[in-house]
Design a protein that fits this description.
The protein is α+β, with helices and mostly antiparallel strands and 371 residues long. The chain has four domains: 41-52 and 296-366, conserved putative lor/sdh protein from methanococcus maripaludis s2 fold; 54-62 and 213-276, Elongation Factor Tu (Ef-tu), domain 3 (Beta Barrel); 63-96 and 173-212, RNA polymerase II/Efflux pump adaptor protein, barrel-sandwich hybrid domain (OB fold (Dihydrolipoamide Acetyltransferase, E2P)), CATH 2.40.50; 98-170, Helix Hairpins, CATH 1.10.287. The protein has helices at 2-36, 98-133, 139-171, 358-370; strands at 41-43, 45-61, 64-67, 73-77, 85-86, 91-95, 174-176, 181-185, 193-194, 207-210, 215-222, 234-239, 246-254, 259-261, 264-273, 285-302, 307-309, 312-319, 322-327, 329-333, 337-342, 349-351. β17 (307-309) and β18 (312-319) form a beta hairpin. 18% of the residues are buried.
């Protein structure tokens, strides 16, 4: 009986010791199989590499105007509303000019009276001049009539100038479209009192208009990429709100001063959209792709095959049953592949992981010996 108890204890101890070991080995085997699914080498191949700067921006009109009256008044007519398309010189709104018309009539009456005063003063002057030539009146009286005539002419000129200023104010009661445009906003209504743009608060905004046939993208370019940009570069534009739509544009302006937006320092850039789609509207988000470098039929390797040590770039190239370390010179690169200008040929096999080559082992042994 004691023997059976001893055998049972031994079996239990063995089970406790073997199960964790078997589990650890199984875990190691599973990890090895997972690692085996990831490629560790790649073939040097020829392919086209295109590097582009990506950025996001907001679409807006190239020309947008806040329409305000130049004089104070009350809205009389407002024939346009949101989304209306307006031609150049069409009426946007008018102000009530009844008070100005009354004042104009008063100015005309004033001019008529001033004209009569000039005619009367001129007659008195002519009569006094004749009497002065006959020495029937004094020189002082003659000069007084001449002065009265000059003062009457000045009064007439002043009244005419006041009428001209009033006429100019009357022309400002009718506001017309400065270009072909679309109405974006209309925050006021008919009958509302508005102030002129020359006032203290810069005037009341009656309308916002824009030319939606000419649109731009206002983008924020990272400071690391801005040196690669220049005016005139082509830009690929995708609009998030219109899936599948791709537009073309051109870099129009790049700000010389950096700003910080959402914690990122960059430079504002203006991208002009060449051909606009009617589905695109102001305020939509645009994703930009700006090609800055490309190489066709380039000798290329995955980025993982390029290693760097103390400024020297190299790759591990398979030679026979082992790998050798070989210096390479890199050209342009995208987010997956790098162009190899020197050091590799198409068809060669490179490692995607660091490899201990015979030369590396020799250096390690020499370093250990010196130590």
């Amino acid at each position: 009986m004691k023997q059976w108890i001893l055998v049972g204890v031994v079996a239990a101890v063995a089970a406790v010791w073997l199960v964790p070991k078997w589990t650890d080995r199984k875990s190691i085997a599973d990890n090895s199989s997972e690692m085996a699914g990831r490629p560790t080498t790649a073939i040097v191949e020829t392919r086209s590499i295109h590097f582009a700067i990506t950025a996001a921006g907001e679409i807006g009109p190239a020309e947008q105007v806040s329409v305000k009256p130049e004089i104070n008044g009350r809205i009389l007519t407002l024939p346009v509303d949101l989304g209306d398309q307006v031609k150049k010189e069409d009426i946007l709104f008018t102000l009530d000019d009844s008070d100005l018309q009354i004042e104009r009539q008063s100015r005309l009456t004033e001019i008529a009276g001033a004209t009569l005063q000039v005619e009367k003063a001129e007659r008195n002057y002519e009569r006094s001049r004749e009497l002065f030539d006959l020495e029937l009146i004094s020189k002082e009286l003659y000069e007084d009539t001449k002065t009265d005539w000059e003062l009457a002419k000045n009064s007439l000129a002043r009244s005419q100038e006041n009428l001209n200023l009033l006429t100019e104010r009357l022309t400002k009661t009718t506001i017309r479209a400065p270009f072909d445009c679309t109405v974006l906003t209309r925050p006021v209504s008919i009958g509302q009192a508005v102030s002129g743009s020359g006032g203290f608060n810069s005037g009341t905004e009656v309308l916002t208009i824009a030319d939606l046939n000419n649109m731009i993208v206002s983008a924020h370019i990272n400071q690391a990429d801005v040196t690669r940009l220049s005016s005139g570069q082509k830009v690929g534009i995708q609009v998030e709100s219109v899936p599948g739509l791709t537009l073309t544009g051109v870099v129009e302006r790049i700000a010389p001063q950096a700003i910080i937006r959402q914690g990122i320092k960059g430079y504002p850039a203006r991208i002009f959209i060449k051909s606009i789609d009617p589905r695109v509207r102001p305020g939509m988000t645009a994703n930009l792709s700006i090609p800055v470098a490309s190489s066709d039929n380039a000798v290329a390797v995955p980025l993982a095959a390029v290693f760097t040590e103390q400024g020297d770039r190299f790759a591990y190239v398979k030679k026979g049953g082992s790998f050798e370390r070989r210096s390479i010179r890199i050209g342009i690169a995208d987010y997956e592949y790098a162009e190899v200008l020197e050091g590799l040929q198409p068809g060669e096999i490179v490692s995607l992981e660091s490899v201990n080559t015979p030369s590396d082992e020799k250096k390690s042994s020499l370093a250990a010996t010196n130590t």
